[in-house]
Amino acid sequence: MSSATAIVGVSAFGALAVTSGAPASAETTAPQAAARPAPATAAPLAPTTDRITSALASAKPRVTSGLSTTQAPFTGGTQVTVTGERLDRLTQVTVGGSPAPIVATAANQLTFTVPATADSVRGDVAVVFADAAGTPAQVTVTDASSAVASVASAGDPANVTAVTDTTPAGADALVLTYTSDPAIDAQIAYVLAYWSSYNSAEFPVISGYDCANFASQSLLARGWTMDAGWSLDLGTGSMTPSWASSTALRDYLRTRTDRATELTDAQRGQVKVGDIAQFDWDDSGDRDHTAVVTRVDRTATGTKVWVGGHTKDADYWDVDQAIATGGGSVSYFSIS
After folding, report:
1. Domain 60-179 belongs to what architecture?
2. In the chain, fewer beta carbons within 10 Å around the N or the C end?
3. Given this model, what pLDDT does residue 12 score?
4. 206-209 — which CB contacts under 8 Å span 24+ positions?
5. How far is it, in rounded angstroms, from Cα 333 to Cα 250?
6. pTM over cut 0.85
7. Of 117 and 260, the one with more pLDDT
């Protein structure tokens, strides 16, 4: 049959096209659509969020204020605060090389407790803040906050604007000044004045066991006031058992948690000058001797303690030596 066969195709514009004239017997194939140009591909979005997250993660903690107080007694216990950025990443504070417990921490604020130091330490020491890896935080002090507290406490706020922090920008540490404690200074001065030359003009002497009596006198010199449980009548010489007996003094101090904290010898690292040391020579559970801590040395190998007192008249008696020669054990009361 010679009739023409229509071929249906698709034009380049997508319209149907009809072509005639091809023989009926010819094999026909639908023509391919013309290739379309590939659409332009947009450049991939830069990972801005990832970069920001990475930058924040790599940013280091920074202290931007001075210390809330720049002076603390060598006995420790003072709480000090700093402000800054990312401070919650800090896990270590050292004062003069000694670890300082962190009390509270947040992103913009950190508070630590000044550790006790040897009684011979006075003057300026470095305060260093670091992360878990030991990397120090940057210190860029931009205000006079460390000085404001001391000026304001002096009752002269008008001078606050005249005070500036002396810590250089970019320094790795702030500076704290260890000072004396007037009460402890008075107590130790009394012990060192009368350990061998008894103050019998003012206080009675208990022959053969004057140790607790003398320790009580030192606490009086420190500023303690007598009460019903611990007292001496200077007119009559009458005294409560807690004034004159080591065991009774222990029992009294245990009730006065506002004034004293009991420590074992395993807690010797917390002992400071002016504390009370008590010896149990026969490990019977009572207390056979009482003395006053007159010196503490803290080293990398441990803490050494010396005591002064009566009966075993001494100004600096090595506690370890006392135990080695007398036997038994020693315990302490940390005095506040």
Report:
1. Sandwich (2.60)
2. N
3. 41
4. 206/244, 208/311, 209/244, 209/311
5. 8
6. no
7. 260
- Interacting residues of 266 by C-beta distance below 8 A, sequence separation 6+: none
pLDDT in tens, 275-302: 999 999 999 999 999 999 999 887 778 8
Strand, coil or helix: what is 204? coil
Give residue 189's identity as a one-letter amino acid code: A
SS (H, E, C) 58-119: HCCCEECCCCCCCEEECCCCCEEEEEEECHHHCCEEEECCEECCEEEEECCEEEEECCCCCC
The DSSP symbol for 135 reads: P
What ranges do the domains of the chain cover? Answer: 1-35, 60-179, 182-335
3-state SS assignment for residue 145: helix
Per-residue pLDDT at 1 exceeds 60: no
| DSSP assigned state of 122 | -
Q: Tell me the CA distances in angstroms from 193 to 93, 305, 308, one per residue in order.
A: 38, 20, 11
